[in-house]
UniProtKB/TrEMBL annotation:
<dbReference type="GO" id="GO:0016787">
    <property type="term" value="F:hydrolase activity"/>
</dbReference>
<protein>
    <recommendedName>
        <fullName>Alpha/beta hydrolase fold-3 domain-containing protein</fullName>
    </recommendedName>
</protein>
<dbReference type="InterPro" id="IPR013094">
    <property type="entry name" value="AB_hydrolase_3"/>
</dbReference>
<dbReference type="Pfam" id="PF07859">
    <property type="entry name" value="Abhydrolase_3"/>
</dbReference>
<dbReference type="InterPro" id="IPR050466">
    <property type="entry name" value="Carboxylest/Gibb_receptor"/>
</dbReference>
<dbReference type="InterPro" id="IPR029058">
    <property type="entry name" value="AB_hydrolase_fold"/>
</dbReference>
<feature type="domain" description="Alpha/beta hydrolase fold-3">
    <location>
        <begin position="2"/>
        <end position="120"/>
    </location>
</feature>
<comment type="similarity">
    <text>Belongs to the 'GDXG' lipolytic enzyme family.</text>
</comment>
<feature type="domain" description="Alpha/beta hydrolase fold-3">
    <location>
        <begin position="121"/>
        <end position="238"/>
    </location>
</feature>
Length: 261
């Protein structure tokens, strides 16, 4: 069968991780694991989680169970692939577990490369941007941001919008850096070397994404920006129709961006 990638999201990410560890510890017949993609993984927390027993019915449910807690696995450093990609979502309640997995794997003695990215769309993309700027300006202990993915971002215009206080309840107004990258004195310190920016042709927020692109290029930031426009599509179309041709084109572009060195 050759060499394959293992990938999983949420609880599936945890299962993919365990398969990769077993592959490295005991071997696999007929194929090798080339890489591991972990999206928003659902590992155990130190506090009991009633949902865990339903997601992993054969596990003990305890924090010390290697199926649930990679740090408790004596075979973690034998992870059977040369590359791992870890993705977390800024607004995901599981984000700390994904960040924790990244840190555990780097400490384990695993000899492959581990890449980490935080991604969001719409208003979530704004938050991901803001976290990346703060990471560059003040540091982010234990985590290195390899890139920032911005899909159909929802920044402000010069006119007040009634929905903004609900999206960003702690913001102070139109000049708040959380809403307006052009008002952020630390924009040039964006804490990653590359950004993928995507707008949709029929999205009413398209111009805001284009404005962000221009702000970033003029800011003095030293990284690279990859730009993509989804022709004929609207806001976050890929979430509603993930198997359409344009969505697949987007996913392929994201894969290429993530794999860039």
């Amino acid at each position: 069968m050759g060499r394959i990638f293992l990938a999983g999201e949420s609880a599936g990410g945890t299962i993919a991780h365990n398969i990769a560890v077993r592959a490295g510890a005991t071997g696999t017949a007929g194929f090798g694991v080339r890489g591991l993609i972990i999206m928003h993984p659902y590992f155990a927390n130190e506090e009991p989680d009633k949902l865990i027993k339903y997601i992993y019915p054969t596990c003990s449910g305890l924090f010390e169970d290697p199926i649930l807690n990679p740090e408790a696995d004596p075979d973690l450093s034998k992870l059977g692939c040369s590359r791992v990609f870890v993705c977390v979502g800024e607004q995901d309640w599981l984000k700390p577990r994904g960040v924790g997995y990244y840190e555990i794997l780097k400490r384990s003695g695993y000899g492959g490369t581990v890449e980490f990215v935080e991604t969001e769309e719409s208003a979530g993309a704004n938050l991901a941007h803001y976290v990346a700027v703060r990471a560059g300006a003040t540091g982010l202990v234990g985590v290195k941001l390899n890139g920032l993915i911005m899909l159909h971002s929802y920044f402000v215009t010069s006119e007040p919008e009634a929905i903004m206080p609900y999206l960003y309840p702690t913001c102070s107004g139109l000049d708040d850096p959380l809403l307006n990258p052009g008002a952020d004195p630390d924009l040039a310190k964006l804490g990653c070397p590359k950004v993928f920016l995507c707008v949709a042709e029929n999205d009413w927020l398209k111009q805001r994404g284009l404005d962000y692109y221009e702000m970033l290029k003029k800011s003095g930031w030293g990284g690279t920006v990859e730009f993509m426009e989804n022709e004929g599509e609207g806001h976050c179309f890929h979430l509603f129709n993930p198997t359409c041709e344009k969505a697949l084109d987007l996913f392929q572009a994201l894969e290429s961006f993530i794999n860039q060195k």
